[in-house]
Amino acid sequence: MSAPQERAALTSRPSLYSYALRLAQEQPDRPFGGGHPLPDEPPGPERAGLRGEHAFAAVEVALAPLLAGPDTPAASAELHRCLVGLPVDDGPLVGAVLTMDLADKAAARAIGRHLTRTGTTRRPVSVGLALLRRLGEPEDVPYLKVLSGLRQLFGLVMAALEPLDARTAALRRLDAQVHSPETRPLVDALLSGDRREIRSRLIRQPLGPRTIGARQARWIAEALGLPALLSGAPVDPRLLAQAGRLLSRVADQHADRPELLSLSEATAAFDALVRRAVALPPTVEHAVVLLSLALDLHSGQAHVLPWRTGQREQLLDTLGALILYPEWTSTVRTGPDADATPAVRRRAVWLRHTAEQVFGAAEPPGRLRIEVALPDPDDAGRVETRFLLDGRPLLPEAFGHGPGDDPGYLLDRGALRATAEPREVKLAEASCTEGCCGALWVTVVRADDTVVWRDWRRRGAQPSRSPEPPEYRFEAAVYDAELTRASGDHGWEWPGRTTARLLDSALRARPDLWTRWGLTFLSAYTDFRDPERVVVTYAEHSVDGSRRWFDWRPADDGPPAERVARTLRRIAEEDPRTYEEYRN
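^ that's the sequence the OP posted. Answer follows.
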């Protein structure tokens, strides 16, 4: 298609904004979250698909003259033609706009508005939305609301709308993306605006990790307006508890991004909830809610929210005073009955350890504090290692794509021990795997009486926007003492985890048990689906270099020391390849 033909095709078409507005007026009952397809677009030239620095340069060359030129009909037509024919794929095109230097922000904002409101095809409107994502103002909200009805532009519109009107963006995301029978009734209530129905649905809403992920939980929290929802009197304890569970879901460390840091009213929500927590009866379920919030304020995402001076500490003091009140203390510290299920016993251990970890009379933390944290056992989350540097959690700000690595690797196997030989250590890995959103690595080395953490690296396919951590230096004696303290703290363990730790250590110390059978020991750990079940993994090396893998689940009856001794005896006496319980 020639330039004149392209210009004619573009100018004869209505803008996508006009198209979306007409559809919204004609079908007012249709879901407004990305419900309509784009109209057919005229064919464009074949694009070479420039990427990386080449894409950035091409976009900058195309847009730079427009930032300084007058806004005339001829310039507008030229802008559309240029963007349609730009030899850059749509993804890199938008990415380049999001990262390029915008010296004249007012001119860039004007171009973004022009493209968003008058663009007739997807590419120009996408560029306009990318500019408004960076520079949008409240006057752009009505246009973004209309464009949110177009399916192929929905994600770009939401990214531009969210900083300007978080509640509207959340409602549209929920409407477009949540259809499960467990959660859709709450979404429909939020869309209706009926406050009584919203409260009723929220109280009945399942909020476990299998029902609602961290991102959905944030959208629900935004749509609810938690501070206002909790401000009414009298306080309904059921509503208060659900609000606490919802905040805990938003703060999930296992999400692929730190959702709590994106919640617009996060500090106000924590403040409103904690100040009304006295209305909660002292039950185990309510203790779990309060301690989950306290743990996050102590060492999770909530710690690094933009608090007023002393506000976070005051909220922790309020929670601590409540948890240490006699009625609550008996709930938190009383052990389970002798005939309690393993799940009840795990929760009792978690309550006691978390209360001690957050509110115990520990020594003032030094420059480095290492703690083991795990979610409520009913959530079946992963045990993680957290690092407080100068009193501030490292991972939410420096990484944010997943929890700290398992203490079995970092502490029990000595990965963090510092020697004169530099050692690269993985502190955290994205929940979606390192190959997707990366991992955070640091080099640990001892130089005389100093331990240094340096040469930070984030590996993975996706670039990180988190600031690079600085080099940290620790007194070697203090560093070693902290590692010893953290490695020796097993108060959080349940019997299955203790068995796995002791067995892993014993099997690593006895490689002869495996070599006699022509096998190699890999690891011992607890089954994610059954925390009391220990899994032993090992491998057989074939002559051709291939490996045959085995997963063996030993019997899980008896105390940990007895289980370990029984497992060692069996490996010494029988070829592990003959076990009936193994899977390969």
